Amino acid sequence: MSKLTIAIDGPAGSGKSSVARRVAAMLGYLYLDSGAMYRALALKALRCNVSLENESRLEALANETHIELKPPKPEQEAAGAKNCVFLDGADVTHEIRMGEVAQAASRLATIAKVREVLVAEQQRAGAGGGVVMEGRDIGTVVFPKAELKIFLDASPEVRAERRWKEHQEKGERPTPGDVFNEVIERDKRDRERKVSPLVRAADAVLVDNTAMGIEETARLIVMFAEERERELARAAGKMP
Ligand code: CDP
Ligand code: CDP
Prior knowledge:
Elements: E1 5-9, H1 16-27, E2 30-33, H2 34-47, H3 55-64, E3 67-70, H4 74-78, E4 84-87, E5 90-91, H5 99-108, H6 112-125, E6 131-135, H7 138-142, E7 148-153, H8 156-169, H9 176-192, E8 205-208, H10 214-235
Parallel strand pairs: 1-6, 1-7, 2-6, 7-8
Antiparallel strand pairs: 3-4, 4-5
């Protein structure tokens, strides 16, 4: 059967990376984390002291930067890495997960010209199909013709708690209140920006995993994918 393009969008902490990676593994698809690209560019801007207000400089930075996503090696996977992220050839998989980088990423993600560069890169990376890509605008902008679109959500309290637990596991000690405010602030910016805001595509299936684990959520999405594969095969006359 021909392989699908699966788009998973949703707010911070909704489980996109964990679930998308599991879905890709179950289907034998490529997993791509588009947010990691925004984070990598934000890390470079912070390191180069480029102001997040300076749109033309950030556009130039996007054009001159090489970001690559690679599947993790087994030992990196065991340490929780989902995609390994290379910024101009250097491994920045861990650095891009800092809270400061997340906030900077969501600020530069409001700039249309920066998005154009990264969206073109994402479209190239997923062009062959057989891919699960997750982010904020995958079903609306990057792959509007994706055969399966999921809008993954969970309550703000649960999403913030998940992020807080991740900080604890890394030995970081932000207060639960600070993490909650960070998640809410970033969501608001992502939902309210003019270009490619976070919004559920009209044809996306809403999956609320507030009370569901990663495995359960991934299995549900795989069921949708298998159903979609059958529908497409039937439409192509390959199945009764
Ligand atoms: O990519 P996104 O920000 O949407 O979320 P994530 O990084 O996949 O998940 C955030 C945290 O929540 C991770 O530590 C996951 O293990 C956890 N999680 C969970 O406990 N239950 C779920 N159903 C989904 C994610
Ligand atoms: O993992 P989490 O959901 O917290 O964030 P992420 O997916 O790593 O994305 C970081 C930031 O990049 C988001 O807050 C968005 O502002 C931006 N982003 C975007 O605008 N479009 C995407 N397709 C992916 C991420």
